[in-house]
Amino acid sequence: MPRLTWVIVFSTLLACGEASDDDVDTTDQAASTSSEPTSTASTTATTTGATTTSASTTATTTTASTTSTVGDSTAEETDPTDPTGTGGEACVDDHRVVAFLANWTECPSAEQLAQYSTVVIAFAVSYQWTPDGVICDESCTISPVTGCGGVALDQLVAELHAADLEVLVSFGGAAMGGVWEGTCGEMVRCWDHCVDQLDSVVAQLTDLVIDNDLDGIDIDYEYCLHDEPHVAFVEDLTSELRASFDAASPDQHRRVTHAPMDSELEAGDPYYELLGRVADSVDFIMPQYYNGGRNPFTAEGLESIHQHYDALVADVFAGAAAKVVFGYCIEPGCAPVATHPEALDVIQLVDTWHPNNGGMFFWAHPNDTDAWFSAPFRAYYDAAFCGG
Question: Which CATH number fits domain 6-52+86-384: 3.30.1490.100, 3.20.20.80, 3.90.320.10, 3.90.215.10?
Fold first, then answer.
């Protein structure tokens, strides 16, 4: 059960403001400079220069594997039927621990992978990155997607599957275009080139999934839904991917997920409404409860999130709480930066709202040093829900 002291703990957190447009660009470029320019997108977080109050997040980054395999030398000793090493069983359809994997960095360690139930590789994109900004492909041709640490995508997927993990690739990300730009298309407008290329995009993503034995595609659309063509594109992309996956692999269910900003999911908003129309095609959504104005670590913010979360469960997904996964960001500069024990306290409270909820996700794996953030969730879920 949640700690009775969570409200007191929340009052000690550092207050974080919302990020500016320039901050988003800074994050994109900093992340992308260490990556392959054709396969790197921005983080879904933004940079404000805020610092975290948790000592855990200031730990130095552990050196990850520099070979062509994920994890460290203990990975091959992990029992694939017991990835936690605790006798628990990672939940797959509820109480997930979902980690976004930044593919321009070193791969997660075995210790990190042992905590996750789902890995979302970021990102598949239709642009090339340059120091002066992204160059959108006007035909919305998706660039080759690489794995982390120089590992080929198909090899990475195979190794993650061997660790008993579900593996998705996220299509989109902030550098495809974002609502924080103000007027739609004011800065980056890569999504605009995809709107009239639906069939091609569906075919490319289906090939990406089948050729690399992925478990599905996450749609990370953070751009403007300012007119009917853009709304129709996101809606049809969801339903058409579902149909294409089912046709291409009738014996295996491939997932279609979304990771929208919470501020775009107000009742009556285009994104909220279109998700309701395609709810049967969506396996789960991952609302980003950061950088959108809501703070789960204040009483007021948490109450707003409670109402928001309830509406998604009841109205969009007809009571299927397992389709809503609570989103955190642990990257310095997010608003807010998630820390422990507060983040676990909130999740335990979410379990009192909807005991069959979808679990949690976080951006992103490089900041989960020594699994400091993911491990408490894994231990809690295993003990309470997932067979531990």
Answer: 3.20.20.80
